[in-house]
Specification:
The complex is a heterodimer of chains A (543) and B (112). Chain A has 543 residues and is mainly α. Chain A has 23 helices and two strands. In chain B, helix 2 packs antiparallel against helix 3. Classes of the chains: A mainly alpha (543), B mainly alpha (112). Chains A and B meet through helix 6 and helix 7 of A and helix 2 and helix 3 of B.
Chain lengths: 543, 112
Amino acid sequence: MNAWTHHLIIAPILVPLLASALLLFFDERKRVQKAMISLVSTIILLAIAFTLFRIEGGPNSFDGVYLLGNWAAPFGIVLVVDGLSALMLLLTALLGLAALVFSLARWHAVGAHYHSMFQLLLVGLNGAFLTGDLFNLFVFFEVMLAASYGLLLHGSGPLRVKAGMHYIAVNLVAAFFFLIGVSLIYGTAGTLNMADLAARIPQIEPDRRMLMEAGAGVLGVAFLIKAGMWPLCFWLPTAYSAAAAPVAGIFAILSKLGIYVILRLTMLLFADGPSAGFGSEVLLFGGMATLVFGTIGVLASQALGRLAGYSVLVSSGTMLMVLGISDGAISSGALLYLVSSTFTIGALFMLIELVERGQDAGAHVLTVTMEAYGDGEGQQAEEEEGVMMPGTMAILGTCFAACAILLSGLPPLSGFISKFAMLSAMMGTGAIGTPLGPAVWTLIVLVILSGVAALIAMTRVGIRTFWSSLEGTVPRVLVIELVPVMFLLALTMILTIQAGPAMRYMDATIRTLSQPSVYIDAVRNAARVEDWKKAGDAGTGEP
Amino acid sequence: MELVLSIAIGVMTACGVWLILRPRTYQVIVGLSLLSYAVNLFIFGVGGVKSNLPPILEDGVDPGTLTDPVPQALVLTAIVIGFATTALFLVVMLASRGLTGNDHVDGRNDPK
């Protein structure tokens, strides 16, 4: 990376942070200005994330260590961007843009400070993906959570307040687990810098090792709550289905944040040495239980919102199981699955609201809240002016079918490609002729069964929604509400067509992750800017 | 000193856990506060319990006569964040009370 691109590493945190601060200066009535600021910030974010992604996907990756305040690594705090972080940043920006555009139709107007909270959520997510320090991870996690509390309550109503209260209580307890884990790790290893920690863990003496592992376990619980591993997941379907549609759409990536942190920490901290493979059984069996629970939930749920909530659990369960096996080839398939399922679930949550709008109380509640919130008159007029989508039912039906295909993992979309990549890697784990282990067989069966369950459930709901509605009430859907959904589904299409390059990127990412020494050396050898004033004058601010 | 500290952490954690399992929102929030005190003390404790020692390293000072400054910085951040989220939780609790008319965590009207 040359001088100016190096500073791009901190931009995904700074840009939305500045935008959210700026948004506070505008009155709630200046909706257009607020929307424009938020939109511009998210588009800039997407451009930055894409640039970082291109750089990391390039030949000489791993130059992405950014020393904050120009302090050397174990003493100061660092931001690290590698293949995995860059991928997650891009995923966040794409999903964020889609959810934001979707909300501009009406949802951003049903409560106060929507855009500020949305940008803060992006700050927290990007920071958590970038940080190379456990305590900063906690800080960004809390920023993200605080924003998500506000967003979950956005639009108000008894259902959201109730779900929000449970969500906040569960996540506050998770934050305590996080703190206990972090402080136990600090007490035993004496550092919070992830790279430093990874280098020190193999040398910890045995009497302290147990305490350190206990700390790591407690820390893991915090992320497993976020990822929704059974039995820590009962809050998730309720909270996600109660949230406003664009909020639920962006929430699709919050559970992936839990997965990301677990992937990052297990591959970095427990790669080798006496603690190698710590926690993998928990992930494997917990993942299986989550997948079974999610599958049953998908089959049992009557409402579309809950179905999507349980689909989040299914995808979390699949990812956790694969992380439990911790095999390189399967993991890169799972990364592809992570990307594909994030897009799918994000699109599904937004689509659900559009589909249900024509049906029943959903839209009704919204109008009531909007009237309660004030200036319903102006809002109503604005709504009438919006461009209606032609052929609404046909497009909604097609999008719904695409979601069903993606969730169940049928060809031709990326759900199939990613599941195929995982399953074929699982089949190929043993050498030819050796039988596969019972764990791998269970896994294969469960993944396929969850796909079948998703197919059954989606077909049933689809028939009920699209074919048997004799009334023929066509929901009023605006273009800017359908375009984001179609955009996310188009991304899965691109992922299918570009499966080769995507898979190569995932393989390279997993290969880098499975060599912790690369990460450790990069952080430890990150050079400071020797004379920053002189360097600044010369126009090269490279640390 | 260590004994007093660990007993205090233990008692507060026990009370906190019991309280957050109660069905009334007020009990839950008091439980959460107690748990956050316990966690903050715990973070303090992992740096080693020392009294009357400065956390500032200067030239010619033996590091053995200092307290660890990192847990103090951590606990400060944790207190701020915990305080803010507790305040938010209180607001949500009040909203729930207003919407449902009772203070049960599920919003159900329990005769007891």
